[in-house]
Design brief:
about 130 residues; mainly beta; seven-stranded mixed sheet; four-stranded antiparallel sheet; about 50% strand
Length: about 130
Amino acid sequence: QVQLVESGGGLVQAGASLRLSCAASGFTSFSRYSMGWFRQAPGKEREFVGGFTWSGSTSYTDSVKGRFTISRDNAKNTVYLQMNNLEPEDTAVYYCGRGGYLQSTVALTEGGYAYWGQGTQVTVSS
């Protein structure tokens, strides 16, 4: 079955960097799926952070543009979220999701992702 496993979260101070990883397994043709990162802060709904299509088109929410970068290593079936200059407002559980096959646009809502990982906690102290 499809599995997505996030890792790399932790407790850091404001201004620090973290790189999250999402290892995918249980399906073939990983490179042809769009992937996305979402986050959920306490008491808030899950929100889109960033994502990319299978062809490499990317999209980010405004609050992370210029600070976060998504990448993927198709040989390792892994996607990454590089987070720089972290702010306390970035504190949340971060989830990766698998989007559509050969999808041409980045899905910005949860409904565009059929599978999710268990999440990894990111806490940024001020």
